[in-house]
Structures are given as structure tokens and as C-alpha cells.
Amino acid sequence: MKMPAQGSIIMLEDDTRNWCGSFPSITAGVNCVRWSHDGALLACASDDKVVTIYEYGGRVQSAGSIGSKSVVNVEKYRLTHTLHTHSMEVLSVEWSSDGRYLASASMDNTVVVEVEDMHFLYLMTMVRKIAERIVILDTTRGGHNGPVKGLSWDPIGKYLATQSADKSLRLWTTDNWQCDTVITKPFSQSSQTTMFSRLEWSPDGQFLFAPCAMNNQGPTAQIIMRKDWDTELDLVGHRRAVTAIRVCPRLLSYVDYAGKTIQVTCVAIGSRDKSLSVWVLPRVKRPVVVLQRLFKHSVTDMSWRGTDLVVSSQDGSIKYLSFREKELGTMLTSQKMGNVCESLYKIRPAQYCNNGSGSLLETPSKANSSFIDSPEELMAKRKAEAAISKELAKSTESATLPNKPTQTAAAKALTEQRQQQVEVRTSDGKRRIQPIFLGSTVDDEPAPAPAPVQSRAQPTTEPMLTDDPMTSDGDEGGGR
After folding, report:
1. Is residue 282 reached through a cis peptide bond, with omega within 30 degrees of 0 on the bond before it?
2. Do 118 and 36 meet the contact criterion of CB atoms below 8 Å apart?
């Protein structure tokens, strides 16, 4: 089997973990990939200073010839956006919980926030300047003085947390994009030997978990309390620096050792010591499980799907961990999560509304997808376009053509007279036609106005926007 080249993005099936496809990155290695919360878009951060966004287009009807040994894709993806907003390698990228923002962190000491809903970009043209669509969080706004290694969106929508090699964690307010709080104490002794710092919030926004912290010269995962940004609590046990923290997307109903049912946050911690630990907080003081030497190298990233956890490593391998209900508990429904947040903050976050979708709005990228999965869909689309064209032609014709005047009796008689033709033949066989007086005692009928020329272009709902590097606002290099 021919495997994809280095730097490619590999897709695996959710349930079977079988090969589902791959597609190459732009030009360099990929550091981070994140699905939008509705599953329609995939953002990729890479070493070529670029953030690329792909659109999922459904399953492929034919996955190659029978007996072929080469790897074939069974899913379709289309490159929709290329964001040239950084001057150095991009280390992390994250979608906001409500789908409105996309943030990227880079070695150039900056965080770039796309302030437009990426789905709305499908429905609008690039009429505004690039500067109006992005916010750059740098030193002019109280930003970092070193490479930014990780970021995480507050599930309540109020903050964006970023962590840097300058041994600080910064909290930015999303209403004015200013630095609100700087936390340095837990990270002052850290050696910053990790390439990534994957931090994350708890599902209810009560806690922020940050890697690369130190306590008494030992590596820890820092727990930051939302109420007053207190940093007294941490998670210990790993022998080397913590690289990644990922939290189960919802709270869990967990039965503790005393048989009491409590609501907990499930946290997975990966480290440079090649191991993984899983915790349920806040009332359980020991990890649920610790997996020593799970890899041959550092843990680089993780992702939850329900109570299943996928872990990647710098050694190039991926582990899939599945937990039973009695080990971690039962996930709360979207409705219950909304109730929890509403009781804490008097608001219900978008990701816990509308049956748990990432956005309250219908996804335009799905409704206006450019992918056609079958001939039947293509024929239906063409028929719909033809019907629209026909209706437009009718409405245009009725609006522009004057009403035809009623023919009078005199004009009718004159017309009948003109139709009579007297013809005789001479002895040699030639025809002779008697001329008829063509004069008229009534005004000629006015000629109808010419119909407007109909465009041959068919109406379309496809987006007019392109974010190709050479066509974005005329900015060479596609910089946003």
C-alpha cells in the first residue's frame, strides 16, 4: 500500500478507524488541524506560515478500481481559503465555540483572529479591506514577547486564552480584543522545552487548564480558576513537561468511590515523558488512569469524541483509547449543559443551543456546497436553474413589452383586402399580377419594442468569493 507523503493530512473513519483518505498540505509540515464545530470546515496550521481551510464535500461514489493497491480517498475535500497572515511558522489554530471566529498562533509572537464567520464568507464578496476582517493580537495590544505556542476559546464566549514561550498566559476579551489578564507565576520556572502548549477550558468555563507549568521544580498542569484567576491548584505526576491538555467537550455524570453521583470535567494530559494521564475533576484527587510510555516520543496533540480519545505523538504514531461508561461516567446532554451554563452565567452558549450545533445559523457551506454527489443531483440542479431562468424571462418580458393594441374593424378589413391577389397569365405563359392600392385610412399599428437581450448566464447560488493567494483584494500573496 502506498502511504501518503510526509506533511499530508490523513483521515480515519470514526467508528472503524479505517483509512478514509488523505490530501497534501500546502508545502510544509502540519502542526495543528481543527474541525469547525459543525464539521463542515477543516483548518490546518503549517510550517509554511499559512492557515489553510478545507470544505468537506461528502463521500466519494466510486473509490477506485477493484484490486488497486494504491490508497484511494473515500471522502471529498476542497480548498476554500488560504490565510497568509503570519510571517513565521503557525503552531496552533482554533475555532471559537459559536463558529464566529478562527484564531491562529505563530512563532512570530502574534495571534491572528479572523473576525468574520468563515461560513458567511461564502455568501459575500471581498468588498472590504483585509484589515477590517482580522485582528492581530501583538505587543501593541499588550501581547506576547515570544512565540505563541497555544490558544483556547472560552466556551462562554468572553475570553481567548493564549500561552507563549515568554512564560506567560494572557486572557483577551472578545468584545474589544485587549489583553485583560496576564498570568506568569506558574510558568516562571518552566524551561519552555516543548514545541506546543495545548491549553483548554472546561466545558462550563469554570476552569482553564494550562501546560508547561512548574511547582517546586516539578512539571505540572496548572488549574486556573475563572472566578479570580487563582493558580493555587495543579495536577502533578508527570516526570517531564506537559505538552497538551484536552478536555472532554461536555461535563460527565460520574459516580465517585462513595457512590455519590457528581458532575465532573474529564481532562486528558499528555507529556514529554511519553505518557498520558486522565483525570475527572474537581472532587477526584487521583487520575482515573495513567498510561506510561505510551509512545516513543512526546505527545503532541489529542482529541475527544464522546468518551473516546485519539492521541498523536512526535514519533508519527496515533493511539485510539476507548473508555467505558463506568470508568468516566455519562456525558450530559446539550440541553443539560445549556442549563448548567445558564445557571452560572445567565446566558446559554450557542454550542448548547439548537440541538448542540456549533452555530445558531444554518451552515451556508452545506446549503451552497459546490460538490455534486450523483447524476440525479446534477439533473435536479439544472432543472431548478432552468425553471428560475424561465421565470426571470417571463417577469422581464411582461415588465418591458407594451400591451398589443386591439385591431380595429377598418384595419382588419384592410388586411383582408391586402391578402387578395389578382393574377392572370398571358398567351406565352407569363404571370401578370394586378397591383393593389396599399394606402391606409388608419394609423399603422405601432411596432412592439424589442425585447431585452437575455443573458446566457444561468443564475447561481455559488459564492463569488475566492481566497486564492493571487486574488484576495489584489494583495499579492493572499495576505489577510
Report:
1. yes
2. yes
